[in-house]
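Re-run requested by the PI after the first attempt was lost when the workstation crashed. Everything re-entered from the original request form. Ligand of interest: magnesium ion.
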Amino acid sequence: MRLSRYFLPVLKENPSEAQIVSHRYMLRAGMIKQQAAGIYSWLPLGYKVLRRIEQIVHEEQIKAGHIPLLMPTLQPADLWRESGRYDDYGEEMLRITDRHKRDMLYGPTNEEMITDIFRAHVNSYKDLPLTLYHIQWKFRDEIRPRFGVMRGREFLMKDGYNFDIDVDSALHAYNRHMVSYLRTYERMGLKAIPMRAASGPIGGDNTHEFLVLAATGESEVFYDSAITDLAFGDRVVDFDNRAECAAIVREWTTPYARTDETHDAAIYAAIPEARRKSSRAIEVGQIFFFGTKYSEPMGAVVVNDKGERVPVQMGSHGIGVSRLLGAIIEASHDDRGIIWPEGVTPFHVGLVNLKQGDSATDAACDVLYKALAARSLEPLYDDRDERAGAKFATMDLIGLPWRITVGPRGLASGKVELTSRRTGLSEEMTAEDAVARVAAIYEGV
Ligand code: ATP
Ligand code: MG
């Protein structure tokens, strides 16, 4: 993409309404525009990152054997009357009446609807296990929408639902989700720690939240620092293997890690003092096992291998897709702007032309641009007629992890400069070497 043809409405001033760094940088980098409290348009740069995050979520869910579908944002109130949640959910639910005076709502989550789909089409244990998920906009009329996309009213969530014949199988589904989430967050460059949590209105006894440590987080957490040393890496997992998934879950749930709601001061005090940590943190996901909470009242029943009719065992599993942009920026920035992890960056590399209009420099940039594209890399080429300082400031603000700088002085000795946004270190090399280096960096990301 050439910057001169792109839509990147960068703000020079710090927007006064933004209290935390991720909100400030998302506005300044022209990623989002607020349309109403907690409701945002996603401008091209923000939309690109959102799509990258979604893509990672899809890939990891599909690897785990989970099946994507898409349910609507609007739901009939009657479904929620069946589960009893229409009255329980309270003012966070946006209630709507259509022209026929039918009660509708903008879905805050989808347990009822997915249970309705299930009961309409599945009635035998032979069709289980089954996990369906979607990535769809939700609406929760939060009392205090704030921090930009971090606590929106309209927000994008991945929510998945498992259906299993018995508790053991459902617990395997729970483990499968935990394992797939560990890899999902790591691919986004995040350390998201599973912590034992208390269940909210969705219900259930068995639940973990995934938390990213950050001073601006809204949760308070307590943990053994041993858990922050764990890395999932690129291990190959057989998601059908119950023992293997359970072992990974054990590895990640053995060190103490809890939110304030489940915190146990006595267990915490027994952790060696040097490893005893507490922090603020951002909730980026949550998994639940809740058994027959919805299947029983809603009649989602299957015939088991003994010919008995039993309510199906369920769980639900959410990832805060739009909140993740804020969480990633909170975890990865400096005083000049965002520093995108390679896994989610909107463009792979920035290309800065130091002397726009100089025919040799322009030609060298064009060659680089094409060479990068030929390696399936997407460059953002700053081809504007601007001072070098302004071009660098824009690149630093929008946070592309790599930058190639091209100017007449370097070209005279056949060199361009490759700069890491994270370390700030630059290296001179030929244009071909720069392309090869950037391609190698993104291999395996
Ligand atoms: P919170 O405690 O932050 O209000 P929640 O526990 O009510 O969130 P869940 O029902 O667990 O949320 O939803 C799954 C994920 O969706 C959360 O882990 C979070 O990352 C994201 N999420 C929830 N509410 C919002 C919101 N208002 N804006 C953006 N993302 C949200
Ligand atoms: Mg939650």
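Saved to the shared folder this time. The CA atoms of residues 157 and 321 lie 5 Å apart.
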